[in-house]
Design a protein that fits this description.
Largest sheet: 7 strands, antiparallel
Number of strands: 7
Distance between the termini: 20 Å
Oligomer: single chain
Length: 194
């Protein structure tokens, strides 16, 4: 968490506490990291690593990663049209065939929109990009072959300081981008031990 001095506003504290509420998939490994300090008076950031199986931190199980940033300006910012802004990133490798799909950008953006709606995360001012990265290797690296990644970057203004649903939506997006199958509606994730 980063603050530019002064007392932490009650709304920001409420927002941070609400991030503890969602029950995320066990393949999502969260860690608090230093937040960008110049974007707003109060900020917080989390990163996630998405793995292929619950609790597995083996690098071979790594499927993707992401970042979730909370910005708060008690005075509000005109571009946000509010006092909070959520900024996210989700990135993962893709199979070459999927990476070549002309509709990849639209599909990945729909994953974000669907996850926000399915988690009940009220929002406005949604904007962002979907980037496809194709890496080709040459010389001594030719044996590694090509690599295709997709990256979704987005930001939006939450309707309330209750950011738990926004964190859950981002985690759902990161899992989808990483290629994990959706959890059936009848399955409930168990809470992590703290």
């Amino acid at each position: 968490m980063s603050s530019q001095g002064g007392e932490i506003p009650a709304d920001f504290e409420r927002a941070l506490l609400s991030l503890r509420e969602p029950r995320l998939r066990r393949e999502v490994h969260l860690e608090e990291v230093p937040a960008p300090a110049r974007l707003a008076p109060f900020t917080a950031a989390l990163t996630a690593e998405i793995t292929s199986s619950p609790g597995d931190l083996d690098p071979d199980a790594f499927l993707g990663h992401g970042r979730f940033v909370v910005l708060h300006d008690p005075a509000g910012q005109e571009a946000w049209q509010g006092t909070f802004r959520v900024v996210v990133l989700a990135r993962a490798r893709l199979e070459e065939e999927m990476g070549a799909d002309a509709l990849l950008g639209e599909v990945a953006w729909s994953w974000l929109c669907e996850s926000l709606v399915s988690q009940g995360a009220g929002f406005s001012q949604l904007s962002g990009t979907v980037t496809r990265v194709l890496s080709e290797t040459f010389g001594g690296l030719e044996l590694a072959g090509g690599d295709v990644e997709v990256e979704v970057r987005a930001s939006w203004t939450p309707h309330t300081p209750e950011l738990g649903p926004h964190l859950a939506a981002w985690a759902e997006l990161a899992c989808t981008v990483a290629g994990l199958e959706p959890v059936p509606a009848v399955v409930t994730s168990l809470a992590r031990r703290r």
